[in-house]
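**User:** My hope is that you can spare some time for a protein that puzzles me. As I understand it, each token names a local backbone shape. I would be glad if you read both lines and explained how they fit together. The protein I mean follows directly.
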Amino acid sequence: MIYKALCVFVLAATFLVRADDEVISWRANIKLTWSQFKAAPKKNLSAVALAASGITFDYSVKETNSQIVSFDTKVEAHFYPDKSWIIKEEATDHILAHEQLHFDITELYVRKFRKQLFQLKVSNNLKTQLRELHYNINKDLAVAQNKYDQESDHSVHREFQTKWNTYVKEELDKLEVYKSKD
């Protein structure tokens, strides 16, 4: 018997992602462009742009005689163009790089999640463990995204922006083995 669940978590906005929404999967050789920010801007906010990204996770569990014997997972970092927006008159390359790093942070937490999944042992408690890991990684991702925006003051504080650029690159490199495949 196979049990399958699909969960989607999206940062930076409170909205639902529909099955027919466009998604862009994170890849090392592909960077975001302003043309991919397709939603109407939210002008009542102080932000110039919003990059909606999140972790998609699905898993299947194989059971024999009511015992879990194996499992498969799929975890990806996604960017949602139809939920991402810019105020075009204020958009700069510096702000685009800030938004790209939000997406890169999502990939970082995907890699951390994959590492945790790789270390899981098959047990009858597996489904609960998978749900808990997914919940916790999303919580940690949200904390990191908020910390990044606070410390960099949404890209205004260039010294902290540079520190975050370096930190994320180093952390991605450490977890290279778990990167999203090109």
User: Anything to note?
Assistant: The first strand starts at residue 2 and ends at 10. Confidence is low (pLDDT under 50) at residues 1-15.
